[in-house]
From TrEMBL:
Comp. bias (Polar residues): 41-50, 280-294
Source organism phylogeny: Eukaryota, Fungi, Dikarya, Ascomycota, Pezizomycotina
Highest taxon of source: Eukaryota
One Pfam family recorded for the sequence: MAGE
Boundaries of every MAGE domain copy: 54-248
Alphabetized Gene3D superfamilies for the sequence: MAGE homology domain, winged helix WH1 motif (1.10.10.1200), MAGE homology domain, winged helix WH2 motif (1.10.10.1210)
SMART domains hit by this protein: MAGE (SM01373)
InterPro entries documented for this protein: MAGE, MAGE_WH1, MAGE_WH2, MHD_dom
Protein name, per record: MAGE family-domain-containing protein
Residue numbers spanned by region Disordered: 1-50, 276-312
Length: 312
């Protein structure tokens, strides 16, 4: 009997030890899976934190009307995680759209107005470079884009912001309806008609125009190639995004109201076609300059070719 009891006790002890042994055998794979899950969650948390940083950076820059540049994102958001730009930018964009009804819109490049600028752009050969600057714009449906819903900001004050918005919208509209470019003397005449040639509700006219240039609503160019100094204004990158042709046409229709003439849309279309024609002419000039500088050999002799047509 004692021998039977000892055998039964040994069998019970072996049965009790077997689950522990199985757990020990399974534990390495389960630990690896837990580590993978923890690493994935850590990466997701890090991406979310950087996306929130990008959102805060975009709102901070928009408050001062400063574009959010790729270099700022790399330095202030990504740090050593530069390869995470696409994932962070995509998550920040989704957060902006879903919670704040805005989105990061790329800024177009400045127009090459003067002959010197066009030649410089042709030599640089970077016309297809990706956009490295963005601004915040609303993504609300068109039916919700009303002054009662989307009004001017309250900083510094509601009145000052509304006045400044109206001023740069008026100047941009004058430029667009003038064919996309307007001389300084002609712009002064328009401002004088509005009785804002010296001062405006937000400060002196010269200071306000300088502020518009700083904020990239308009661009001031000086051309002395003809022997005389010619100063012109064109629409800047931010002006194209925030106002553009649709905003200019909307401003004109709002001013006329119910008293708009029957041919107002036809006149607007003609003015916008003039602007498009000027842009196409500039683009063709830039393409010609690029073609002339494409080979990098200037106006020298062409390369000689062998009998088989290959360059020697």
């Amino acid at each position: 009997m004692p021998l039977v009891r000892r055998r039964a006790r040994a069998a019970e002890e072996s049965d009790a030890e077997s689950p522990t042994t199985q757990r020990r055998r399974v534990s390495p794979s389960s630990d690896a899976e837990d580590e993978d899950v923890d690493a994935t969650q850590g990466e997701n948390n890090q991406t979310s934190q950087m996306a929130n940083k990008l959102v805060r950076l975009a709102f901070s820059n928009e408050h001062s009307r400063t574009p959010t540049r790729r270099t700022d994102i790399s330095a202030k958001v990504l740090g050593s995680q530069g390869r995470q730009f696409k994932a962070v930018f995509s998550q920040a964009q989704e957060l902006l759209r879903s919670k704040y009804a805005v989105e990061l819109t790329p800024l177009p490049s400045k127009e090459k107005v003067t002959l010197r600028d066009r030649r410089a752009a042709a030599k640089a050969e970077k016309t297809n470079a990706p956009t490295n600057a963005w601004v915040l714009t609303t993504c609300l449906p068109e039916k919700y884009r009303k002054p009662d819903i989307i009004g001017p900001a309250k900083a510094p004050t509601f009145e000052q912001e509304a006045s400044y918005t109206g001023l740069y919208s008026f100047v941009i509209t004058c430029i667009i309806l003038n064919g996309g470019s307007i001389s300084e003397s002609k712009l002064d005449r328009y401002l004088k008609r509005m009785n804002i040639d010296i001062s405006t509700p937000v400060g002196p006219t010269d200071k306000v125009l300088s502020q518009m240039i700083k904020h990239s609503y308009i661009v001031r160019t000086t051309d002395t190639s003809g022997g005389e100094e010619n100063i012109d204004y064109t629409v800047g990158p931010r002006g194209k995004v925030e106002v553009g042709e649709q905003g200019a046409a909307g401003l004109v229709r709002t001013v006329y109201g119910e008293d708009a003439p029957d041919d107002l849309d036809r006149k607007l279309d003609r003015s916008l076609r003039l602007a498009h024609s000027r842009i196409r002419t500039q683009q063709q000039s830039q393409d010609e300059a690029t073609a002339q500088n494409g080979t990098g050999r200037g106006w020298g002799r062409p390369r000689r070719h062998g009998q088989d047509g290959e360059s020697e």
